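Much of what follows relies on a compact textual record of a protein's fold. With that in mind, consider the following protein and its fold in token form.
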Amino acid sequence: MSDAFQPATWEFASSMLAVGLSYRDALACVAVGFFIVSIPIALTGAMGVLYHIPFPVLARASWGFYGSYVPIVSRAVLAIFWFAVQSMNGANATRVMIGAIWPSFLRLHNSIPENQGITINQMVSFFIFWVLQFPFLCMHPNTLRWMFLAKSIIVPITFLAMLIWAWVSTDGTGGNIWGQKTSVHGSEYSWAWLASLTSVIGNYATLSVNQADFSRYSKVSHVTLEPGAVFTFIAFIGISASSAGAERYGTLTWDPMALVSFWSSRACRFFVGASFALSVLGVNISANSLSAANDLMALFPSYINIRRGQIICALFCWALVPWKILESAGSFLSFMSAYAVFLGPIAAILAADYWIVRGRKYDVLALYHQHGDLYSFEPTGCNWRALAAFLIGVAPSLPGLVASVNGSIDVGVGIHPYQFGWLLGFVASGLIYWGLSWGFPEKGLVNRDLRPDEVYDGGGGPMEGEEVLEVLPDPGKDLKV
């Protein structure tokens, strides 16, 4: 819940105003988007609660032991991308803080070409935030509870204070928000609405895949509507502040730090910048770097642990030039859409495999057997049904993805599937995977659900007095964690 209070949640709502949608459209996109994404989050999260295993292990059931590397690599790359984007948000907050103390910092001579999307003071700020962030990645999350506690108190207060500023500074009108009209019409409006919806889903599409990484520690699985309401309220804060900024300063700024930079009070600029930097730090530690580290550890268990994975994630973020992604509202929404295109099919395959194809029956012990009778998909180690469903679900969005990366390429109407890529990929891949599994059923479906409690209590593992090797294979040969 505390991760909702971050710059990205603010930005994807206020950026919708910048691409021509009204505040009503933006709030509707946020509410509908989080309702939709909560469904796969609940489905995959319940699997973690029941079997107490992380996403990389769960993926073996539907993808195969080696086939699971496809979703693992996909999520690792996207987690590193998101770490980089959030680091740039942290850099913008750092720039505001330094500028509040030393205003001359904002007037540094810029020797970086304008087409690079970053200035010299932004680059310095990015380096400073990255250096300050790095030591926290080397600490165990349990030792950082004090920081997350501070974040859960300070950041919501800051967001509420900015909402109060938005209404007080405009004499209670909230700017022109209530009279704001949609500036796009017809089919352009429809596609802009779908693209914005996809960007909302993309913000938390990762959780639709890796919710098991967190829910596996839980004993109770339930779904509530409060998170969606919180996200919608934060979106309202972003829209209100952007609208107030447009009335006061004549510029519609979807970036909260760009808005704060207009303020005359240096103390206010500093403390708001510090609060946003703290929010980014918490999200990068709890969500992005740990997700990437889990995936890298699953790919190279002999060489990478959680700490090394987080460090690798931090190093790679430089190569992804996140300032290009945040250069404009359009590029930010394009990135969010691209982020969701690959995760929709993966989430659909995970959910369809457990809830439909296998009838909610997994053998948790077999998921750790590389060459066992279940989930190994010998001789390739890959479930071709999952791979085919994934490729078919992603393929329609690829032309639009290419066009979003290189604007000089005209793909015509090929851009439209990309604009609702998550929904298209989720539905298409889920149906195709179910159809292929029904038409070409795999051998060795389990007849009884085997969970960790049974294994440790003796229901599916070695009983008291039995020889362990009669049940478990040679751990050096077949057992993979």
In short: Residues 266-299 form the longest helix (34 residues).
